[in-house]
Write a structure and sequence with these properties.
The protein has 9 helices and 10 strands. The structure holds iron/sulfur cluster. Iron/sulfur cluster binds next to α4 and α5.
Length: 302
């Protein structure tokens, strides 16, 4: 059904099958309904929690996402979480799994390795605050396509709460007093830094820096410190190793689809997806553990 015709509040939970009841039950869960306020383009009548997805530019279909947390030494799956197939839900599942393995197994990883989808400021901040080193590429939209200097060309001076431009001048944070607090110069959690107009006007590098503005301005997100931690880690040798180790989780998903044939689910609803993903992960772990701890070799009597 197209999104403008779908109305979840009109569904009578007493008259619908289990998968639809589960959809209603998970509308407020971070892994499903609450992951995004954006309605999918189409919703399935028989399994409304599944997500209409156009994966890798192929034909669209209804799907769930299988999320794994694995240990990189052995490739053992530590936790599994089924979610809607949208980035917010998949990224959120990492927090759920990290909390759960801490509660159940008292496991607290030194670092988390993941791909760019997980590199948003809030996610990095969440990890850094829990002393988990983020080994993942930072999502950075501060780059410029017109060849002028981007924020990365400016040095951050944390002690004095200012940026230093390539010409050595300070960009200070500026605030204005507005009668309406919602009319501030920037959105919530963002600070804005500005160079002095007279300095920029006389600067020999102005055309490379701010050709169309009186003075250079730079914004800084609330989570910028955590993003910088991730950028610094990305320059280390350990990060290069981490990026190779990341392939271990991709190999498990490839094995899941190609060898175990889990390209299609047999059960409907969030619980059905979760049960199938959990069983498949158990099978993969048993296979893995059999390799790590082979049966004692039988000795042949002479
Ligand atoms: S234009 Fe202003 S901010 Fe940019 S390099 Fe020159 S002095 Fe620094």
């Amino acid at each position: 059904m197209p999104k403008d015709e779908w109305n979840a509040s009109a569904i009578d939970p007493t008259e619908v099958p289990r998968a639809v009841r589960e959809y209603l039950d998970t509308l407020d869960e971070a892994a499903f309904g609450a992951a995004s306020t954006e309605q999918p383009k189409f919703t399935s009548h028989s399994d409304p929690a599944s997500q209409w997805t156009a994966a890798r530019k192929g034909p669209a279909f209804f799907s769930y996402s299988d999320n794994y947390l694995i240990d990189t030494d052995h490739g053992v799956i530590i936790d599994v979480e089924a979610t809607r197939s949208i980035r917010q839900a998949e990224v959120g599942s990492t927090k759920t799994m990290l909390r759960r393995v801490k509660e159940r197994f008292d496991l607290h990883p030194e670092r988390l390795i993941a791909d760019t989808a997980y590199g948003s400021g809030p996610m990095l901040d969440w990890l850094v605050k829990r002393n988990i080193a983020p080994h993942l590429p930072v999502i950075d939209k501060a780059g410029r396509s017109d060849g002028t200097w981007s924020r990365a060309d400016f040095e951050w001076d944390a002690e004095n709460d200012q940026y230093i431009c390539p010409e050595g001048h300070a960009l200070k944070q500026f605030r204005r007093n507005y009668s309406d607090p919602n009319r501030g110069p920037t959105g919530k959690g963002t600070a804005r830094y500005r160079a002095l107009k007279e300095v920029c006007q006389a600067c020999p590098s102005k055309t490379k820096c701010c050709p169309n503005a009186g003075a250079r301005k730079i914004t800084r997100e609330e989570t910028e410190d955590a993003r910088q931690v991730a950028r610094d880690i990305a320059k280390t040798h350990q990060y290069d190793i981490s990026m190779k180790l990341r392939k271990k989780v991709e190999m498990l998903f490839a094995h899941l689809k190609r060898i175990l044939g889990l390209g299609r689910l047999r059960l409907r609803g969030p619980c059905g997806a979760n049960d199938e993903f959990l069983l498949a992960a158990t099978a993969q772990n048993l296979r893995k553990l059999a390799k790590i701890f082979p049966a004692a070799q039988q000795t042949r009597n002479a």
